[in-house]
Amino acid sequence: MGVAPAIVSFPMPYVGEKLEGRARVSEIFAKGAADRPEAAALVSRTGRLSWRGAEEASSRLAAAYLALGLRPGDRLASLMPNRPELVLHYVACAKAGLVATPLNYRYAVPEIDHALALSSASALVVHAERRGDVAASTAAPGLPLGCLWAEGSGPGGRRFESLLSSDAREVFPAPGGDDPAAIFFTSGSTGVPKGVTHTFDTLGAMTASCAESFTMTADDVVLPASSLSHIAAYSFSLAGLHAGAKIVVARDFGADELLPLLREEKPTIAVVLPAPLFALVRDHDAHHGDFASVRLFISGGDKVPAELENEFERLTGLQIDEGYGMTEFGMCTLNPVRGALRIGSVGRVNRGFSVSIRDASGREVGVGEEGRVWVKAPSVMKGYWENSAATAEVMDGAWVDSGDLMRADEDGYLWFCGRKKQIIVHDGSNICPQEVEDAVLAHPAISGVGVVGVHDVFHGEKVRAYVTLKSGAGRPADAEIVARARERIAAYKTPEEIVVLDEMPLNATGKVDRVRLKGMAAGEAAGSGAVAGVAEVGLAVPR
Asked: Can you give the pTM of this predicted structure?
């Protein structure tokens, strides 16, 4: 009689609660317009727009777009700073069946050209202060319907504001749920930005999941203080509107903009990226009472440094609720809104999402083991625009490979361990740059840090930390920086080189641009001479 084979059991995916509904972006203002037409739906420091006003303005804008000659499925790009009108534009695109194509407002001319060419945009809604960049663009002059200029005029185009008051009347088409609705460009942290394509169905699921996971209601006031061209602020804003909440639009993310909004609009939910949040909590005008209305304060986009967690809690009495998301699927995890918040964790899986943590062979790893994160949800992108090869690289049926490394604890909380492509391999050991950055940033003289691996013949890669210093701070000794870091991380992870920069490079989404830092390191290794912005280079204490 043969011996029965052993049964090997692997952990199941981590699954969020069932998603109860879906949003329709085209109808995002309709319920509020019917239930409380004169209540504020969109506010900024320069104006307020009621639910009825927003519904009517977005319909006029949609009709005007179609009257210009745009047709369902056409890509309508935007290069706009944060404004309430940008939210109206997104809803108008949905009503008209157009594919909204946001360009990050920080884009340089080559990035603008890349996005316009890749998307084959028919027209561009652009702020007048970018006239010079549009004039220098090679792609913008060839747009079939030209430019629509906001807050000013520009060559060869129409005024955007005139469309908001248009008397055009169109019968809006009814696009299919699987039709493309938006193209968002990746940050380019792992290469040339790709066009993440979302459908009306995936955006509807993303919006509903965000609203339900954050327990948003009509009593909330939501302040998504990041770029509306990025999936985070886009989905937070639409989720709030879907729940009937008032949306506060921050025109920029400095303390002089955010503090008045906190005091005057009293948001209950606020979302701020780590870099501007550091500046906010360190502003001498910021006080405990400024945050009294907030019930949920979210940050993320990269690992939130422990020093920021500590400074924020000392000032506000609140804890940062860290989450995790990607342009490809939206906000995937969050520390429970009602439940234990574990500092340093990106939380548990949100509604509608499933997360699988796998090893290199594709098998799911056990509790506490590090692996690559795969995500399944009704909000997962349709694919990368005009790039089937890149789509095939990351998608396996309904699952998408995030490229990020995480581990899960026994209670299903996930802990971010870094991006696979940015992991530093030193003497065969993996080093997460975010972990090193967190340790280096604990030094009181350092205001910003970016860590990368630099090729080394003997060790594979050595750890280099690029740092910026706080205003008025003296240059600390490298040995002092390393000693501080060693109090928090193992010796083999600590930097072997310290480079002081005048300014830390950030990518289009406001994260430390490690790709650019790697390029700077490569340029130095190739003997290209001094690098712009490098104030001082030092060799840290040997390990």
From this structure: 0.82
